[in-house]
Amino acid sequence: MTTAAAGGADEALPADRQRSGGTSVPAPRKGGPAPSGSPGRTGRSVTGTRRLIAALFLLPALVLLGALVVYPIVYSVYRSFFDQAGTGFAGIDNYRTLFSDDTIRTAVKNNAIWVVFAPTVATALGLIFAVLTERVRWGTAFKLIVFMPMAISMLAAGIIFRLVYDQAPERGVANAVWVGVHDTFAESSGFPKAHPLPVHPLKAAGGGAFVTRTVVHAGQPVQLPLVGVLPAKMPGDAKPAKAPAAGGDGAVTGTAWLDFTKGGGGKPNVIDAKELGLKGLKVEAVKDGAVVATAKAAADGTFALPASADGAELRLPASNFKEPYNGVDWLGPTLVTPGIIGSYVWMWAGFAMVLIAAGLAGLPRELLEAARVDGANEWQVFRRITVPMLAPVLAVVLVTLMINVLKVFDLVFIIAPGSSQDDANVLALQLYRSSFGTDADLGVGSAIAVLLLLLVIPVMLFNIRRIRKEGRR
Fold it and tell me: What is the pLDDT of residue 283?
């Protein structure tokens, strides 16, 4: 009865006052004004802001965007179809040049190497640093040190690594370390560039070795004078040379010394008081092409060979005189691109580490602990849980670095010397050289700019698509 009465009451009410769920609500009227706050004929947006006012606020930014981004892109595309002077229509000739010119093709190849290796290595190092520093007490200090190169400009980093890769071990850190490691396991030359004079009793034997002009005999002291030893190469504990003592049991004795007196006054083939012995000089006794005995000169240059050396020639092998190992040519044609990529990784690994560490901090720890409780070791936890859950962050870092390396210019321009700059060439550097070099061709330069734009657009679209996909989650 009550329900019927309520239904009747609703029927009795006007259409705009009928109940809805027990509450009287007004029904929308045909042709009536739109509710307040909704976009309609008032010209307001969903936030209540007038569209005209919003457009006026956006206008300066849109003008700036058009002047600095849209116009240069459009003009570059337009200019790429004209010749070097800009007066004659060249069609697609400039684009043909991109794939026919050897220098530009090298730049394209190097850009491909950069895109594949530089972001991958930087991201991998950033992931390793972020994971490992979570478990050490001084992790924050380590992250600060790794991230510090980001505060250095590309120009300054290029100057730093130009010095790091210097060929001379006394200036270049890389070669100083490399030469130090090499000389630890390989015997180094004692007296590079040392040689006898024509008046000395030695002659060239080929391959950088020297032999005595006559055979030697026991009881006849042998003289092995040399010149051309740099003061810096003389052993620090070398002593004044002296004549050898008489050898017993038919031994062959002699003296090897630096036949040069500072200030002059010395005589050739004579051991003067101020002349030093060639400590460590290797001497070989050779009969019929075979080495029958060897010896090394003492600090005063004296040496002794057993009786088997009697009647043999004495040879100073080439190992005494070879040039010292000078390290690796880091900035040569072969290694210049990997070397520059190494400097880029040094700068950007910290950037990758910070972003990955932020993502790592947001991972649910209960999943990691549950995996460990179930018996997974740390490598399995890292490979099967940590990395898959960090995939979105890793994608952000990887794509950001890919876009960054496509336009790398400063490091290549500063680090690569002129002799190997063509071998280290990249598209951004070639764009500069083609547009502002001695034989500038703005048509080719514009075509390179368009090619760079076309290479960047797919990466940008992938990034935008991924960001939207993440936003919908």
Answer: 94
